Amino acid sequence: VQLVESGGGLVQVGGSLRLSCAASGRTFSSHALGWFRQAPGKEREFVAAIAGSGVDRYYGDSVAGRSTISRDHAKNTVDLKMNSLKPEDTAVYYCAAGPRFLPFGGDYWGQGTQVAVSS
């Protein structure tokens, strides 16, 4: 089972990006999918999660209102669109899959993709 993130990189303050995560090895149609991030010297932080149904979504306080999580069951993928990026969004972003929507926790994890927001 693999979760592979893509879409990270260097972005300017105020810009947008879309992170994608592709799952392989099994289907996660009944799992919740989500994102965490970890900045240097800080603990891992919850970013967003989406239920297996694809209907219910939940966001961490730091990204709520400027982020959208979505999933594609047919492609076995989950995306995270972030707008109005801030320097504090700089982190390694990890995709995860778990059996519960809330509280969301990952049984499966990706390797992470680096996002750097420059001013």
Q: Summary?
A:
The chain has 119 residues and is an all-beta fold.
Helix content: under 10%
Helix-strand pattern = EEEEEEEEEEE
Number of strands: 11
**Rg over C-alpha atoms, rounded to the nearest angstrom:** 13 Å
The proportion of residues in beta strands is: over 45%
Task: Tell me the structural class.
Answer: mainly beta
Largest sheet: 7 strands, mixed
Can you give the mean pLDDT? Answer: 96
How far do the termini sit from each other? 37 Å
The count of helical stretches stands at: 0
Q: What spatial form do the alpha-carbon principal axes imply?
A: globular
Low-confidence stretches: none
Descriptors:
about 120 residues, mainly beta, four-stranded antiparallel sheet, about 50% strand, globular
Structural overview:
It is a single chain. The protein is 0% helix and 51% strand. With 119 residues, it is mainly beta. β4 and β5 form a beta hairpin. The protein is globular and about 40 Å long. It starts with a strand and ends with a strand. The mean pLDDT is 96.
Secondary structure: elements and pairs:
Layout: E1 2-6, E2 9-12, E3 17-24, E4 32-38, E5 45-50, E6 57-59, E7 67-72, E8 77-82, E9 91-98, E10 108-109, E11 113-118
